[in-house]
Request: fold
Amino acid sequence: MNNQVSERLLEEASELHREYPPVDLHADPLMWAESIGYDLGKLHRPYLPYSAWVGHLDLPRMSQVNIGVQVFGLATNPFKKFGLFRLANRQIDQLDRACLLNPDRLVTARSVGCMTLAKKDGQIAGLLALEGVHLAENRVDNIGSLVNRGVRVLGLVHFTPNAAAYPNYGFGVDNDRGLTDFGCRLVELCNQTGVIIDLAHANQRCVIQACACSARPVIISHTGALGVHGHPRNVGDQELQAVASTAGAVGIIFERRFLGGADVTDVIRHMEYVINVAGEDCVAIGSDWDGMIVPVRGLEHVGRLPNLTAAMLQAGWSRQRIGKVLALNAERVMKNTLPKEI
Reply:
């Protein structure tokens, strides 16, 4: 692609971002804000070679590319066992602080109405996502407390087994076990309370079971397609079709190891695979920026998101399809699950 064509495509990509403000189903800056004082309100540069670990996301660059909704993960390392509920609350405090210091740019969204108002006011709507119920110390009352503080996405599991589910990668992997009784009750509870179920990190049995028993759309917030690259964190055709059967969405990650390539076109390969298997209403963006990843070339940080949109255009995708991937598919899940007003 020559420079002239590149400039034209990037201009069209920027126009698409204005028409369809992008929705990212997963990023992890809050754990860095809590642990090293990472300031979301300031412009950052990546901290390590190849944009690894942290420095991918901040409000100046998010505003620059017109991010509409950002799902912020609440996460910890897989070895931490104590004080997890307190840690989740401290990370929520960091989003509250960022909203307080940047009221014109960021707001915590607790309902569809909040998202709509944020879009109207030119603010980024931030949704909180619990990455594994172990952070709630496997207690329903703690989950309720976090929901009261704004958590609107519940990831059942992370890198280690917990009281709800088993992971597809990490420690204690057991692919012969699915959701526990507690996990099934959580799916029902989330359906009743307007919380989106996130099946990222869950093994195949857990994904299939959760999709079967959920009355609401589910997501797999950040993953790749197993049919493109055989990384154990990626998901197979059955899982893709199961998510699609709920009218859910699968966010494609920007991590090189999951994609099996190091270029923005590798993200497109995974997206096209999901479209072929589960339909164009199923695929979304799930960057995992700031999640200890090495993003592909061209997506080193959020300011370069138009490169992905330009790659979609170069691949010959229609504006309607691009709009679905950028925003509409994820927004549909949110509008069909979250409370209308709070």
About this structure: Residues 141 and 147 are 10 Å apart (CA to CA). Residues 22-305+317-335 form a domain with the TIM Barrel fold (CATH 3.20.20.140).
